[in-house]
Amino acid sequence: MDTLDPLGTGDARRTTAADPAAQPGPTRSRGARALRAVAIGLGVLALVAFALVLARVTFTPQPESQDLVTGNTDPGSSIRSYLDRPEVRDAIRQIGGNLVLCTPLGVLLPVVSARLRGPLRILLAVGVLMLVVEAVQGWFIVGRAFDIDDVILNATGAFLAYVFLGRHLAARVHPRRTPWWRREQTAKALEERPTE
């Protein structure tokens, strides 16, 4: 088995003589694989804990608010009403709280699953999840209402968490492999490079 660096990236790649077109990937020791498994396991545990906290925060009935809450399907309407309030603290609490609520998902989801790496995937995954949460709130929870702006703010918070922290942690747990559109080019470079 030859260890080569066909693209001069400093990243050692492996290929076999039997299958030079096999997808190259970074070499990993047993220790690195064990650390990766531990990181994913801790991420799963943290995700379960977050799900329990999220369920408690979002699905707790509030009978005292039943006559005060109204649903919102007009994007931006609730955000404008928060900003129009005379008390700035209320606006910060409402907007900031919804932004912060799902930030753990922007960090944990890409660590647990390499398929959820990428800002658009995080936006979509968290957006769909929170859309379901808001729908359950609006239909089944007393004193709660569906609000599309909550979904937008939750997904935005997760997106920001991914951009600033989640993508860096995910890159350490799930190092990127050669993209499918560059595999042939990389395989040719491996074949043409003389072995040392």
The termini sit apart by: 12 Å
Beta-strand fraction estimate: under 5%
Cα gyration radius (Å) = 23 Å
Give the strand order, joined by hyphens, for the main sheet. 1-2
Which descriptor suits the 3D outline? elongated
Order of helices and strands: EEHHHHHHH
Oligomer: single chain
| pLDDT averaged residue by residue | 84
Helix tally?
A: 7
Sheet of most strands: 2 strands, antiparallel
Sheet/helix structural class: mainly alpha
What does this structure look like?
This protein has helices at 30-59, 77-83, 88-101, 103-112, 119-140, 148-173, 183-192; strands at 2-4, 13-15. It is mainly α and 196 residues long. A two-stranded antiparallel sheet has the order 1-2. β1 and β2 (13-15) form a beta hairpin. The radius of gyration is 23 Å and the shape is elongated. Residues 1-25 have low confidence and may be disordered.
Short description:
The protein is mainly alpha-helical and 196 residues long. It contains 7 helices and 2 strands, in the order ββααααααα.
Q: What is the fold's blueprint, element by element?
A:
Elements: E1 2-4, E2 13-15, H1 30-59, H2 77-83, H3 88-101, H4 103-112, H5 119-140, H6 148-173, H7 183-192
Helix pairs in contact: 1-4, 3-6, 4-6, 5-6
